[in-house]
Amino acid sequence: MSTSATMSAPPPWQRDPLALRRLTLTVTLLVLLWPLLVLCEFRPWELLEPRSLRATGRFLVQFLTPRLDAEFLVMVAGDTWRTVAMASAGLALAWIIAIPMALLGTARLSVSALTGRMGTWPAALRFVVRAVLVILRSVPELVWALMLVRVIGLGPGAGVLAIALTYGGMLGKVYAEILESADGAPTRALLRNGAGRLQAFFFGTLPGCADELVSYTVYRWECAIRTSVVLGFVGAGGLGQQLDNANKMLAGNEVITLLLVFVALVAAADRVSAWLRPSRRGQEEGEGGRKRPAPRLGLWVLLLALTAMFVASFATLPMHWGEWLSWQAFQQMGTFLAEFFPPQWAPDFLQRVGQGALETLAMSALGSLLAAVAGLALALVASRPSGLLRIGARMGLNALRSVPELVWASLLLISAGLGPMPGTLALALHTTGVLGRLMAEALENAPPANALALRWAGASRWQVFLYATLPQAAPQLLSYTLYRWENNIRAATVLGVVGAGGLGQMLTVHLGLFQMRETGTVVLAMLLLVMVVDACSYAARRQLNR
């Protein structure tokens, strides 16, 4: 009887309707994974070779004795302030770019759009503004800094302007999208009654989306602090420059001190950012279902302190405004930009650029894929109800995401050597921290009804996860992964600055040799690659969110 029952058992694809779909997806991923591994020269077993282990061991053993003498700590404190000041000053300048462009790029604030059809000139202006914002945000901060250092020299000025340009594009685009998505009835009513564009903005649009604008701005300030560390690798000063110098000298005791200070700085910025965001600091549930008002006095004190910090950032950084705003400086900038044109279109050089672009694309894709797998594994532990494992997993995720990709790459180069593999691993490590945290929140927020039904039916923990929790959270998990891939393509284009392959390495080489036409071609390739990946990721996320 048991034999006949076994023979009559339905095949897997009839017991589980999604089995064939899962199998097809797995085979497709494996087919795509092979060329990615080849392009990235992904050979992790080389990290276990005796030579690599000896080099890594000599470096890491110094981590056990961090440098804590007074002279070094005073220098670190000064560089920590310069890092925060550079981020704050860059964000303040980014507002000068973003706010006017967001207002010009928002169709809802156009009087001619009230008729349902925007005029030709306003539509053309809006298109140009949007295009400028796309270009500004598509060029990574490190690329702007590399070029600006050639014009204005070493120091924090190049870093401040690099953050201002890239973040001006990011803030302007997102501000415009937030304003477009706000309730349009008050704005239309004001415009129809003769109000101007600014009046309609301040009294019609802004009140309904102020919290969202503040939330995104504070989040970007937190990101700018991470960015300011990375910019130190190209001579912009701050913690990043000290970390780069210590890493090149294999001074592990200095590296671990700087890393600990940086992780603490990012954690503090994250806490301040979370507390300042309206969505986080709003009213909290009290006992008995009553609402507790947020601590308004403490909030205003903190806002005043941040305002003072922004002012102090401009006062303490050596910005040399008089030199930058002189006619000679503009002439020098124009001459520098003119050297990029015409770009180098030689077939053999374009072939090398294409190879670099494929390498960069493979690094970003493989790094994102590895991070998605590792992040999901850590998210399962981090989303547990309680326990030491949950605390340890969350601390590990915070540590991974606190260290930028470029810092991870510079550390991995010691054991892995030059090439795209350390860049891929660096992207995977940082992105694991980001995705793991987001995935843990998505798993925790999944509707519990299906999971409870399976538990009551006697299903195991893994069955509940595979057939209830994961299917409900899958669209959000895929959306997060695609969004991080979109970010990783920007990061992958600059990892070559420390020798991690791809277009970034080509950019550093040609810029260092003053081969400006070749540099122009590489920058255009970066722009095109980032825009294509952005468009593909955005289209895929829209399909998932339908």
TrEMBL record:
Name this protein carries in UniProt: Phosphate-import permease protein PhnE
PANTHER family: ABC TRANSPORT SYSTEM PERMEASE PROTEIN P69, PHOSPHONATES TRANSPORT SYSTEM PERMEASE PROTEIN
Keywords assigned by UniProt, alphabetized: Cell membrane, Membrane, Transmembrane, Transmembrane helix, Transport
Gene3D superfamilies the UniProt entry points to: MetI-like
One term of GO molecular function: ABC-type phosphonate transporter activity
GO cellular component, one term: plasma membrane
Family membership noted in the UniProt record: Belongs to the binding-protein-dependent transport system permease family.
Transmembrane segments: 84-106, 142-165, 223-243, 255-276, 297-317, 361-382, 495-514, 520-540
Major subcellular location class: membrane
Membrane protein topology class: Multi-pass membrane protein
InterPro entries: MetI-like, MetI-like_sf, PhnE/PtxC
Cell location: Cell membrane
